[in-house]
Amino acid sequence: MMKQHHGHPRRPSIGITADWADPTETVLQPKYELKAAYVDAVTRAGGLPFILPYSDDRQTIDTYLDRLSALVVTGGAFDIPSELYGEQPKEGLGPLKPKRTAFEMAVLKAALQRHIPVLGICGGMQLLNVALGGTLVQDIKRELPTAREHQQTHDRRQPQHPVEVKDGTALSSCLGKGQVMVNSTHHQSVKGLGEKLVVSATSPDGVIEAIELLGTAFALGVQWHPELMIDTVPPHLGIYKTLVHRAREVRR
Questions:
Q1: Selecting from 3.40.50.880, 3.30.300.30, 3.40.50.150, 3.40.30.10, what CATH number does the domain 4-22+30-250 have?
Q2: Is 164 a catalytic residue?
Q3: Does 167 have pLDDT greater than 50?
Q4: pLDDT attached to residue 1
Q5: Which long-range contacts (CB under 8 A, 24 or more apart) does 18-21 make?
Q6: Is 187 a catalytic residue?
């Protein structure tokens, strides 16, 4: 049973992966970056957020996971190297961040091995798919020319298009089944599904918008950014609330 602190359940520790910014002419040192919305969403859902510095040391990664009850793999303005899913780079593939991808892949796979709940956001959903042997559409406009625009230019706190949430999925327990409006900031998408993954939401043009792991472990990936819409489309906080709930079930 979750320990009580001053009459309230103890907040489970939720690890969040950060972005990496290389030095520039004006900022001479590299730095980690993270949108505050991720931290706000975890906190409002009842979790205690921790930002994870990169490491290529497995013992360090294991030590992180010894202390975490769930993991959020965030998105960013970069792509996953195509060789990780057995393809050559195609026209339209965006910039890469190999150091970030290597760390996120290692911590994600280790979390899955331990059955620690995982939430993949945007690029984090794509990484979840690749980690389990799936493939990606490298550029939607070139490979899926009939698809709608998936890179909105207006305020990302506002939605871009609907998705259809499949009944009976973990995602439907977060949001309810049927249509929900989402924002959209991606140019890649899931193509071939990874092992034991199922599609739990699609957009009207057929682009895969959410995936989840079959079985008892909780691993959910969404192609949009629910943390940016918890005030404008409040049901989206349910995704983070479910992650925190599952984290409480798993540990401490």
A1: 3.40.50.880
A2: no
A3: yes
A4: 46
A5: 18/51, 18/52, 18/53, 18/74, 19/74, 19/76, 19/97, 19/100, 20/54, 20/97, 20/99, 20/100
A6: no
